[in-house]
Amino acid sequence: MESVQQAWRRRYPLGRQAARRNYLEALRYSLPGGLWDRPTGPDISMWPGLPYALCFLEWEARYPHEWTRHAKSWGTKESLIRDVAAAHHDETVRRKLVELIETIVQRPYRCKDREYVRVARAVDSRDLRSRLERAACADNPWAQRHARYVLWLLDRPEVPNTRHVWQTWLAAHPERKHQLM
Known about the structure:
Layout: H1 4-11, H2 14-27, H3 33-36, H4 50-62, H5 64-71, H6 74-86, H7 91-105, H8 116-122, H9 126-136, H10 141-154, H11 163-172
C-alpha cells in the first residue's frame, strides 16, 4: 500500500524530485546530516566518521553562534556526546575529548552541555583534572563554578548528573549560588 507521502511525491514535477534527491545526497556529506546515518552500536571508536563527529562537537564548543546558524542539531549533539562517552578511545581521541571538556567548562552553559560530564567520567585522567583545577582557579566565574562541579562529580561516580544534583551542589556552595546552569 502506498503511503500518503509517496503519493504526494509521485505528483511532484520531475525537476522537484531531482532537486530533492540532490538535496538528500548533499546532506549525507555535510554536518550534521552526515552524522545521522551512522551505524548503530555502542562502539563509535571504530566508526570512520568519528573525526567528523569530533569536529561537529568542537565547532559547537568553539563557535556556538556559527554552529547554531549553520548546523544546529541538539539531538545530534546529545547522541554524539553520549556515544563518545561510552567508547574506549585511543590516546589521540582521548586528548581531543579532554580539550573539548576544558573548552566547555570555560563557556556559559548551552543546551545539552550537562552531557559532557559523561565524557569527563569516561576520560578521567590526571591531565583532565589538572585542566579542570586550572579552570577552577581562573578569573572566569562560570569556569570556576563549572570546573569545580565537574571535579566534584568525578570524585563521586555514583552521583548522577541531574539538574537536582546541580542545584543541590550550588546550594551547598553559596558563594556560587547566584548563577545557575
